[in-house]
Design brief:
The chain is an alpha+beta fold. The protein has one domain: name from scop, CATH 3.40.1690. The chain has a four-stranded mixed β-sheet with strand order 3-2-1-4. The radius of gyration is 17 Å and the shape is globular.
Amino acid sequence: MGLFRRRKKVGAVSLDRAADRADLDHLENFVRTRKGVEAYIEPRTTVTETTVMLIADDGEWTRRRIDGPDGARRFAHRLGIPIYDVRLMGYPQRMRDYNERRKRRPELF
């Protein structure tokens, strides 16, 4: 019957697109218009390319594609913001607090 037969893996294919200028413009604007922004590198998955999450001092955040971990580091260095690997550091509590505030009072956001 082949109930437990393995399927032949043809290689990982990303269904997502790479970073583009609009992504970088959005990230740069977020840094310019918020205080205390830090960057967090999020690893590539089978569905998405590498992303960078920017988190402001009040916990507000945004996420966009970036050209790999090295591209994320270059981006953060160019803008003078700290950058962390989310696999090593995790996300800051202020981001979770911000998300909780948004759930309770969505009309404010």
